[in-house]
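Hi support team,

I'm opening this ticket because the web form for multi-chain structure prediction keeps timing out on my end. I have pasted the exact lines I submitted so you can reproduce it. The total is 1262 residues across two entries, so I didn't expect it to be a heavy job. Is there a limit I'm missing, or should I split the entries? Thanks in advance, R.K.
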Amino acid sequence: MATKHSNVSFQVMWNRLISVVEEQAQALVRTAFSTSVREAGDLSAGVYDIHGRMLAQAVTGTPGHVNAMADAVAHFIRRIGRQNMFEGDVYLTNDPWEGTGHLHDITMVTPSFHNNVLVGFFACTAHIVDIGGRGFGADAASVYEEGLYLPIMKFAERGEVDETLIRIVRGNVREPDQLIGDMYALATCNGIGHRRLIEMMTEFNLADLEGIAEFILDNSRRATLERIAALPRTSAEGEMTVDGFDVPITLKVRVTVHEDRIVSDFTGTSGLDKKGINCPLVYTKAYACYALKVAIAPEIPNNHASLAPFEIEAPENTIVNAVHPAPVALRHIVGHFVPDTVFNAFDKIVPGLVPAEGAGCLCNFQVSLRPRSDGPAPADARRSEVLTFNSGGSGARPDFDGLNATAFPSGVMTMPIEATEHAGPVIIWRKELRPDSGGAGRTRGGLGQFMEVGALEGHEFDIQAMFDRGQHPARGSRGGLNGAPTTIALDDGTEMRVKGKQFVPHGRKVIMAFPGGAGYGDPRSRDKALVRRDLARGYITAETAARDYGLGAEEIKEIEAAIRKGEAL
Amino acid sequence: MKSATNRLGVDIGGTFTDVVLEKGGVPYSTKVLTTYAAPENAIIDGMHQVCAKAGISPGDIGQIIHGTTLATNALIERRGAKTALITTEGFRDVIEMRTESRFEQYDLNLTLPEPLLPRQMRFTVSERVNARGEVMIPLDRAAVEAVADQIAEANVESVAVGLIHSYLNPDHERLIRDVLAERLPDVAVSISSEVSPQMREYERFNTVVANAFIKPLMASYLGRLENRLRDEGVDCRIFLMHSGGGIISIQNAAEFPVRLVESGPAGGAVFAAHIAARYGLDKVLSFDMGGTTAKICLIKNQTPKTSRVFEVARTYRFKKGSGMPISIPVIDMVEIGAGGGSLAHVDTMRQIRVGPESAGSEPGPACYGRGGERPAVTDADLVLGKLDPDNFAGGSIKLNTTQSHDALNAHIGSKLDMEAVEAAFGVAEMVDENMANAARVHAVENGEDLSEYTMIAFGGAAPLHAGRLCEKLGVTRLIVPPGAGVGSAIGFLRAPFSFEANRSVYMRLSDFDESLIRDLLTELRDEATGFVRTSDEVSPILAEFKVYMRYAGQGWEIPIGLTEAQAMNPDAATFLARFEEEYAKLFGRTVSGMDIEITVWSVNATTPPEKVAPVEVTEGRAVAEASGTRQLFDAGLGAFASAQVVERSNLKSGHTVQGPAALTEDETTIIIPDSRAAIQRPDGCIDIVLKGA
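Hello R.K., no limit was hit. The queue was backed up. Here is the completed structure from your submission:
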């Protein structure tokens, strides 16, 4: 009985499905080996109906996986074939074009059977430590050099793991135990989602997910379309130029609001880079969609219906639509700049809603440490790879300052430096806010940060820099000033490049300053109380307070005296 | 005359100060409005009330145990001392940069909580210790003196010291403390290697700053309280409940006030654990629901689950990451914004949403008739027949059902094409579902299956919702104890003297160092035992050993309990076996070929738990007499049903009540769903089980 469900029951079930995928994601965070998953939250998890339509997704650290994984299950259904799907199966891929954009993301899909009938799918994605090839970096000239490629295939059939696959994987990667551990973690997390789903179906006496799927998708579609319908039916262009690897990249977009959809067309964007910072379309779409959704429909959960009205177009072999076999390992760099580009256009459609430009891509670097080669190394010197995630400042919002040293659009976390220093013989000498780096404005850009990195006595290292905004700082909006650019050099003054692998001799440190977000509105119209506060806190120096915000010399002296006396400002 | 069996428990909450006096095992309790300006006034007032009820004088009290939200509130409201931080050069902004992430991905106007100290109150000194605990840059005493002079000029009252890797080598922090003691003898100093010797600088620095921030306030309050109690004739020792579920001396509390954060809820968990012991239950879920929040805690083997870090003062819809981390031993609780006052609305997806916004007590839910126009959970409970409009809070507040109907119609029903009753059902289901989801996720995180659990419910709103929650979670047994309204204060009286000491030291099983482990655990045991001895000179003290382990490369450690023999004669094979056992339990499988590392070591020293007399569980002897019937909406049936109304005070041991039923009392109403039946136990607990079970 109870096949006819009330509105209240469906509401409860929708709520439950969202909780189920959150549980699924939590299980992954706790069992994964990859630092990017466990420390930084670079993962996603979702539940799908039998047509491959995503019904719910865990809200995790990375919008980049959102749309990409949303589309992935349909590829799995097509490649595996429904007649070949059995209870106990688990499928996987790291296909950049059918998964989530580079070989370092493994997506696993598990079909869910209830009473011997296929009722849906669970999928999850995690960024893994290593996939062989040249290692994580932009240095490859094609995807073939970037590591082991795993086409959509079975990881397990009827509960039996494919041992041949495991042996091939083990033989092709640098950290086989960790990778196999991560693969099992992904499978486990889908399994937890599956168990919860079946419990829910039993509780509500469901034979399939058709009814609840329609309820979720109808309501989400309607809510999303209402938001789109409220926008002016118009079109605008946006563009932004960033450093790229060797030559600057220009991203161009035309955002067009239709009655029932928004199209982002990237025609005019630069072509492919020779190095691995190219971005498959799925990943571009994920960030374009994120930018529009966070602006106009932030509270509508991600699912097939709420994502569908955000469409994307880009000519093949532009840098936002790299096709096989372009190298794509660091596709996040271009991907992270997509939202600012889309905002640049959207600000002309709905002024006063979106922020000024920010640091954009994460300020990540990897260090490869080894015993010094220029002299005798101590006996306990060792080799080690250490990856860190760091953020510059976000762009000023129309009504709020940008966020200091906080990731946007990515949502990942940094690691504690004490944990980083346990991971290898690396020393982080400095990690703190960078005064004056937030672009001045009526609202100020978020501050970037300083970092200094060296090695324990007896080690030398290579640093793989993955930065941008060295030549192209975040641009101010409506009279706001630019954020500060990225800088990088050795402590002896030797210049370094913002991207690529570079040698750091024994005893030297790398001195880095990560970019600030741009300002919004005329700095002279900034609330003077906020200017005084910023000066007291050292977010801005006295020179900036005087030059950009017009604070008088007397007032600056007063503030400096008040700080010494510990008076609140 | 003074007697060790006269014990006073006092819980200062946000609205009420609960006071319970036990005289020879018999409780006398009262609730007094919290007096914010001088919280000790409410305590004195309450103490006199319960002493009068029990017929004793304050001088007859043998022991006072106190828990308070004052520390928590001071952090939430940022009412602390003028505080400075001294930290390692290059790391001035650790407490401000947090995790560099946004706790809400979909809010362009997100603002992050301000750090406890603004940047100008954070000072640095040149020094550095590495991850092996070796000094790379020595600390120059003159540099510390220069900072001390700056701090003096800034009129700072309290100083926190947090240096990189100080949990491995505290020498530099101690030197700073010594210099400050010489130069600024009136300034309170807290050092991170004592307050929270754990790896991860953001959590550790924030914890030591929080300690320093509230230290002068709490020290002065505790001093005043002690003096006032002495003036009133009290002549016994006073102890404080700490967040880990044990009690410590007033002196230790004044030194480490951050350990008092969340002491009230910890008392609630201890209260539930004690009932679990009485019933011999090894798997219990405590469920505490009040006006604005619900708290859920797992209690295994009659011991509440603990954690090493938690978050206080969440600023954004109770969202994880929106508060500040405090790394101290704490009873692990999930808190969500779901209570009787939680407000309901319909969102853009036409979904009913409940909380975390709350109507509070002013204006309160619509049915209070004090101007509240939006429907709260209490309004839904009233429309569904769970509450009697004429007998709410002992009849002191008359509830207006019409206003509940109107509010539900206007804000829910009209938008979803529902009658008020269906809207009320939707609101109740959503709030129950939210709590059930929180409980499920918490259970999954701990590798537990709730269907094996018994729920113990207390707090004003819990008995109204606990029955439905059990249905949703597949929990077959529910116990509602008497005195549920002052559960935390009763819990204080059940808590052992305890103190947990812990340390971050990395060790791989492949580099297992037996003598180092033995020395470390012995040192921790001596430290923890020493704290307990300052409170209790005579009782035996048990040491509970725990290590936190993970596969090398993972980021999430799992706690592994060790017996004293395993801890004092450590061997790698035993550690491995224990880890694999727990890991498999949590995650279903182990991973072969991976090295395993130990990251944190902890010893909890505790006096033995109070001896518990088991409750004699007898067959039902008689059917309780109902005072009437009323229409009660049963969520399982999805319809109204005729329910018996029974006054709890009329129930005698062995009386049974078949659901659907409402057991009424002054403080709350226990709802027994159609699927369940209740029996009154000899200790006054209502034991609710599946029909036919």
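A quick check on our side: The first strand of chain B starts at residue 3 and ends at 12. Let us know if the file doesn't open in your viewer.
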